[in-house]
Amino acid sequence: MSSLSSKSIITTIGVILILHSAYSCLHYRSLAIVADIPDTSSPPLDVVIEVILAFGLCLLGQLMCGTFHQVKVSSKEGKRRVEIVAPAYRSRDFDLFT
């Protein structure tokens, strides 16, 4: 049995909280329709706080992964500024909106 790291536990708790807040928001809206509450365009404050907390936990869990890789731009022209482009084998077809 493998042990879970603190990173995965924190991220899992964050995801569960996001799912719970989605369920809470849907439950609130269904109750608001039954109770004839006119303005249900925004979620309740406790759901907003829960989503912010859950996002923070997910972010924290992913940032705890360890050291980050350094981004290096190599230039054969010395210290001149070089435009960073996608490799030649990658296409940019997804940018075309026709």
Give the topology.
Elements: H1 6-35, H2 45-63
Helix pairs in contact: 1-2
Can you walk through the features of this model?
- The chain has 98 residues and is an all-alpha fold.
- It is built from 2 helices and no strands.
- It has helices spanning 6-35, 45-63.
- The longest helix has 30 residues, at 6-35.
- The radius of gyration is 23 Å and the shape is elongated.
Short key terms for the protein model shown above:
single chain, 98 residues, mainly alpha, 2 helices, elongated
Quick description:
With 98 residues, this protein is an all-alpha fold.
| Separation of the first and last Cα atoms | 52 Å
Q: What is the H/E string?
A: HH
Helix content range: 40-55%
* Sequence stretches where pLDDT stays below 50 over 5 or more residues: none
Largest sheet: none
